[in-house]
Amino acid sequence: MSDAPAPNSFAPSTYPPAEGSPAHTPHGSMSALTLGALGIVFGDIGTSPLYTLSECVNGEHGVGNVPASVLGVLSLIFWSLMMVVTVKYLVCIMRADNHGEGGILALLALVPGVVGRKGGATPLTVLVLIGAALLYGDGAITPAISVLSAVEGLAVATDKLQPYVVPITCVILVGLFAIQRKGTGGIGRLFGPVMLVWFGTIGVLGAIHVVKAPGVLVALSPSYGVSYLAHHGVRGLAILGSVVLAVTGGEALYADMGHFGAKPIRISWVSLVFPALVLSYFGQGALILSTAEKIENPFYAQVPHGPMTYALVGLSTVATVIASQALISGVFSLTQQAVQLGMFPRVSVRHTSREAEGQIYLPELNWALAIACVLLVMNFRASSRLAAAYGIAVSGTMGITSICYYHVTRRAWKWPAYKSAPLLALFLLFDIPFFVANLTKFVDGGYVPVAIAVVVCALMLVWSRGRRLLAERMSLRTLPVARFLEGLDDRLLGRTKGASVFLASLREGIPRTMEQQASQLRVLGEQVVLLTVVSEHVPFVAPEQAVDVIALDARAGLYRVVAHVGFMDTADVPAFLERAVRERALPIDLSTVTYVIGRETLVATGRGKMGAWTEAIFGFMLRNARSASEHFCLPPERVLELGTQIDL
Known about the structure:
Blueprint: H1 30-40, H2 43-46, H3 52-58, H4 67-92, H5 104-109, H6 123-151, H7 153-157, H8 165-178, H9 184-212, H10 222-238, H11 240-243, H12 250-255, H13 257-260, H14 262-289, H15 307-340, E1 350-351, E2 360-361, H16 363-380, H17 383-387, H18 392-412, H19 417-439, H20 442-476, H21 481-485, H22 488-491, E3 494-503, H23 512-521, E4 523-535, E5 547-553, E6 558-565, H24 573-584, E7 593-602, H25 612-624, H26 628-631, E8 639-646
Parallel strand pairs: 3-4, 3-7, 4-6, 7-8
Antiparallel strand pairs: 1-2, 5-6
Helix pairs in contact: 1-9, 1-14, 4-10, 4-14, 6-8, 6-15, 6-16, 6-18, 6-20, 8-16, 9-14, 9-15, 18-19, 20-25
């Protein structure tokens, strides 16, 4: 099949789901899904107490242990969690799911007339691509800073272990990425109970110190946060660059929605995660306020030095390994959506669950992230230095998500402006200050996620434009069936025994590969089948609805087969043909079938619309994308590729 785009599989489908087929929502008991969500979705935001308050107090713009400042920071953390995570994401944004799938690209696909637009990328599309690209930078930093901050607890226990912090962190990260192939469902069942212990532990530790100094609870009032910002000017804004560390993981929470569903995520947050986080932050704050000397690491200072420190380090390390899972899973989902939207080359996607499309494993991307994480740890070597690289990506994506959500409410849900605009203003009231505050950390490490985002965004834009131009060129070369059949017998030297199956992206006309074979090789099979695979947004397509057969010209032996696949079905073309023969009376002999697919070779010159450099980049991605032969399960010994040179 040509690499020109097939019909947009991400757009809302009108194809009827098979009766009894599972919807694009995870199945299972609510308790099992809630526990699984605890292990996958909340790892990132759940381990933020390891470094957030420490950075707020001891960082470059730290407030020290001045009571009014500490209370102000605690107030800012509490209301950031309340407004950004609870109100924005759980109450509002998670209502905007695309067939159960979340994430910024799923949100974009809900805006009418944006995805699949023939005129090219809209400003909103480009903005969302920037937001998606920023998440790749966030996905590389999160595992590095999470695991490193936990392992640094060994140095708190004893200085002798300081030289081993970085090597141990790298080994743990490699192990984490090695187990991704098991799938998030199995990992969630393993990680869920551990995170249950984690949230219980940090909640109890925090509660102990809050009971000792209950006065810290006055910071629940927003007046303390507002007062701090009002009295500290620019420095007050700068502290938001550290406060934002408390809400990192909010965007990943939305991106991971397809793994477990919205309801289990909301139940986990309200019943356990949010209370435990608030107790942990306020417990650390109470400890800082009740101690005269400076506390370098308030999280580990909650327990006495000795065996309890080592136990907490061990639990923290396991929890931060789990924390990394949220971003890894989110990046997997994001990439799959980008492929479906035609914004990223076709990659190997392995489904790890028969219940949900969202539970997937992408081997190439998995190991690319692993290498990036290890390099970041080896370069920065301390979580305090990595914290400077953190925040720009997530705050930028949060702001873009708010803007895209506004367009969904206005254009898809038809909300009036007086209803949508105040909600957008409320979200941006937090998003913009967070982003501006993080810009101050650009030179100290913030350039890392930005650099990653620039590269990823550029590749997405090149791929999207290249696909569109390639589709335009291929459609111009598609002949109407009637015109192709005119004088066909006179143009051919003969018809060979057997059937030729041409994989076609479009459901009308004659594909370029067939016209090539007829005009250049001057032979065709006795029977010719034009086969198109169409992806539907249902988990499984009922067997009786899987294949349609249309006789275009029975005398010429020309037939069209349209195969429908659900997101959990395998696009097995030989199996579709067998069903078409058995159930739809397609008159071909399966033992004689030859599969013909197209292979476009790009000639990167300055004469095309795309330009030599961008066309060369697109050509490289096209050559290295997963082959159509592998994707459609074609037997290699029966595949014939016909190439053509194109200058875009």
